[in-house]
Amino acid sequence: MPIKAVACDIDGTITDAEGRLSCRAVEALRRLEEQGIMTILISGNALCVVKTLKRYIGTSGPVVAENGGVVEYRGVLKRLGSRSLAEAALKLLKEKFGERIEESWSNRYRYVDLAIKRSLPVEEMLPLLPSSVKLLDSGYAYHLIDAEVDKGKGLLKAAAMAGIRAEYIVAVGDSAVDQPMLEAAGWRAVVGNAPLELKQIAHYVASREYGEGFEEIAGWILKSLV
User: Which of 3, 4, 5, 25 is nearest to 191 (CA)?
Assistant: First the structure.
């Protein structure tokens, strides 16, 4: 299969169960780069965090942050949604729940998506949100974001900026918020800790979990090049 790039989620995909970067996953990303396969980091985290990881891991592709809300490549930054929508939704939640709504430290650095701590049941918040905003649960935080934004659209924008057709990209993820990204790519792979609904749409399901699962997937990709 003609693979030109690998797009991977970060938390739960190239980390361990404690959220720490997996050294084995980092080494696998570097092996992919050494074989001429561009690697693209995609995350719900803020752009500054993802760019820092890109620098120190050594990936060469675009970075997609804020669950697809912002994409950067070679100094060019594209916003794919409106921060004002998330701000209005956050205001509504704070009016209702007060101090029970705790913002992420990273919100001051975000362009589109706003993150809050997972301190309330989703069911209590959803009725307050307008249709223009969705609430995503990454398993690490809740994210308020423009309803038109997702990781799939972020990946397509990143692919266009890098001059790569999406059908030549393998997307790798671990959670429900990764599904649009997987569906946008030509090939789909998931680590062993992914939910059943993702495993059912994947071309490859790793037998191992978290970063070790990504290492396994990287090996599958590299074997396909031989």
Answer: 25
Q: What is the pTM of this model?
A: 0.95
**What CATH code would you report for 5-79+149-224?**
3.40.50.1000
Q: Where in the chain is the domain with CATH 3.90.1070.10?
A: 83-146
Cα distance between residue 29 and residue 67, in whole Å: 21
pLDDT tens, residue by residue, 26-38: 999 999 999 999 9
Coil, strand or helix at 213: helix
Q: Span 83-146: which CATH code?
A: 3.90.1070.10
Contact 133/144 with Cβ under 8 angstroms? yes
What distance lies between CA 59 and its chain's CA centroid?
A: 15
Percent pLDDT > 90 in the chain is 96
CATH code 3.40.50.1000 region(s) in the chain: 5-79+149-224
Chain segment 199-208, per-residue pLDDT in tens: 999 999 999 9
CA angle 124, 130, 133 (to 5 degrees): 95
Residues annotated as catalytic are 9
Rounded CA gap, 224 and 119, in Å? 44
